[in-house]
Amino acid sequence: MKSKKTTVAITLFYVCALLLLASCKVSRNESILITVPVESGTTRLKPAGAIRVMGFTRLDVSATEGIGRFRGISKVLFDNGRIIVFDNVSDFQNIWHFDAETGMLTGKLALEGGERQISDIALDAQGNTLCLTPAKRCFQRYDRNGNLSDTRLNGVLGDGVLAVGSDRILVYNEYSATDISGYHQLIYFDEAGNVLRRQYPYSPELDNIAYSLSGFIAQSDEKNWFSPPFCDTVYALEGYNIIPRYVFDFGGKSVPEGLRRRKIQSGWDLHDFAYLSESFLKIGDYILFDYFMNQKMHLAFYNEQTETLGRLPDLSDDCLGELLQYGQIACKDANTFALALSAVQIRKMAEQQKIDLTAMERCHPSLALALRAIAYSDSRDPVLLYLAFAP
To answer: CA dihedral defined by 373, 320, 273, 210, rounded to 10 degrees?
Structure first.
């Protein structure tokens, strides 16, 4: 009997040990810091076949006229058959709704007065459009019909906003402190606009300066991501934990920490360095990102499993290469990303022979036909191109 009890005890011990080991393994894998070798001698992804065209939507903006006309795409969101476009390319802001299948304009949000001073938008769990409105230091929600349904004061300015789960809102504050935000770049709120937590402090001497193409918060792969200005690291935001997930090896050209932490008087101060920009998303085993290096912007993608990298210069022989270089990237769903292209961009690329529509007709005939049919007047009929990485 004693021997049997001993055997059972030993068996249970090993089972528990295996379970503990498995749980540690999962935890360890989820927290691994992955180095992305942007400038080292990693094996390059072959451009041919790396990215597949899954479809496209041509947005019909012909009905927009005058001051309220469609001007361009600053951000695009996708939600159950809807495409929501934040048009923030001029002082006349608009948020448009399009049918995802037909591309027809179905409406726009009723923005008035100070509500035109929106810095960012996001979708909440109910499909409402959540607006960060520095002009009134508040959050505003618009329902699926485009009507203002709720306003909550938050006391911050901010540059970016995300709906986190069903009950939290995250604001990214680059360098605009208020009594509510303090000198912090991440501020969490509840649905009522009350501060839950402030994170990632910055030096007061950095306040009241503005940079573009640098820090960001983003959502993809059911995760929230963060990178501070002029950085070489992307952090995963899990709960209130800020976990370094990707560090980008720029071959010794990353902005030194001491330089990042003091007030930069001019962009020329960083012209010889490299840093991440605002586009970042994760699709399956791939990450897609852009960065500044060698005094220009680059777009690249990296496969975590094969540890291979593809960059835009490597796509010069691909008919999608120039489109990727000039378009704006957005996450469409778990497997697909969207590339937003304006009619003006496409026209210029065609005129300068940076895209070969004849060659495109052979590999993507329907896309080439759509690009040829666009009305090439200013900011008319943009195209959302849907792309996926080959398995």
So the answer is: 30
| pLDDT (0 to 100) of residue 209 | 67
* Cα separation, 88 vs 91, whole angstroms: 7
At 76, the amino acid letter reads V
Hey, what are 233's tokens? 């690291």
Say yes or no to pLDDT of 27 above 60: no
Rounded to the nearest 5°, which phi and psi values hold at 214?
Answer: -140, -100
For residues 245 and 238, what is the distance between their CA atoms, to the nearest angstrom? 11
Query: Average pLDDT, stretch 290-319?
Result: 80
| Whether the predicted model's global pTM rises above the 0.90 cut | no
CA-nearest of 245, 239, 247, 219 to 75 is 219
What is the reported pLDDT for 113?
A: 60
pLDDT at residue 10 greater than cutoff 50: no
For CA atoms 372, 374, 376, 379, the dihedral sign is negative
Residue with tokens 């990178």: 227
pLDDT of residue 129: 96
Q: Which helix (H) or strand (E) holds 347?
A: helix 343-351
Q: In what order do the strands lie in the sheet with 138-142?
A: 120-123, 129-133, 138-142, 148-153
- Tell me the C-alpha distance between 76 and 56, whole Å: 14
More confident residue, 86 or 311: 86
Instruction: Count other C-beta atoms under 10 Å from residue 317's C-beta.
Output: 9
Instruction: Residue 316: count other Cβ atoms within 10 Å of its Cβ.
Output: 10
* C-alpha–C-alpha distance, residues 235 and 172, integer Å: 13
DSSP code of residue 32: P
The percent of the chain in helix, strand and coil, each rounded to the nearest 5, is: 20, 40, 40
Residue 42 DSSP class: P
Q: How far is CA 219 from CA 28, 88, 142, 242, 336, in A?
A: 22, 20, 20, 14, 14
> Alpha-carbon distance 44 to 373, whole Å?
35
- The DSSP symbol for 43 reads P
DSSP E strands, 73-183: 75-79, 82-87, 94-99, 105-108, 120-123, 129-133, 138-142, 148-153, 160-164, 168-172
